[in-house]
Design brief:
Blueprint lengths: L3 H9 L4 E6 L5 H8 L3 E8 L2 H14 L5 E5 L13 E7 L1 H9 L2 H6 L2 E6 L3 H10 L3 E10 L2 E9 L15 H19 L3 H4 L2 H20 L1
Parallel strand pairs: 1-2, 1-4, 2-3, 4-5
Antiparallel strand pairs: 5-7, 6-7
Helix pairs in contact: 1-2, 4-6, 7-9
The structure holds S-adenosylmethionine.
Length: about 220
Amino acid sequence: MIDSRMAAVMNFVREGNRVADIGADHGYLAIELIKSGRASKVIATEKNIGPFEILGKNISDSGFENFIEVRLGDGLKILSAGEVDTICIAGMGGALIAKILDDAPEVVQAARQVIIQPMNVAKKIREWLTENNWTIVDEDLAESTGIIYEIICAEKNSPKKIFKRESSPLSKKFLTQRLEKLQRVLAEMSKSESARTSEKFSATLAEISAISCKLSAVS
Ligand SMILES: C[S@@+](CC[C@H](N)C(=O)[O-])C[C@H]1O[C@@H](n2cnc3c(N)ncnc32)[C@H](O)[C@@H]1O
């Protein structure tokens, strides 16, 4: 029922945890978390009424209403501190995810695990987690309908592991796609004098160089 992107999110959830799935939409992750026995309870939330109604119906059809609670509202603001151990936020832009985390500091602080699958600016999420005293303990890559997604898992007081993504068969493909994208961005910026002297230009060059090094190490 769930694709490899959602399976990668689910695989990071610690056994038996109480999970919040923020922006649950169809609710497939919540259902699979309970069906597989990985989570003991899920709070599945939606901000928008359309997806919320579908979510409610899918949870009711699954027969897991006793284990999955659905809530309508904005991000983590509709949770109380200590209600969940794991926070999952998948399928949203990095800036929105960072805002959702920023808007509910007590709920985030009381959790023990945060699993994020951003649709863009994954770097922003890594910075947010580090600045807020979370340790990124692992990362993974998952391919679904031709797109490679990044999944980031952070915990409190856990040692950093060797990243799953580094041994992932998708690693080289992901780096190659990212390098090609950055090279297109750099070529576009090179056309303008002001863009060539910008911070973004230097950052893009630095990332191209870092990715090229990584790629030559895996080739
Ligand atoms: C693209 S869907 C991703 C659904 C699912 N998490 C997944 O990964 O397949 C994003 C969902 O987040 C919901 N959403 C957007 N902003 C939200 C917020 N601040 N709080 C809760 N849900 C939100 C949207 O209504 C939408 O259903």
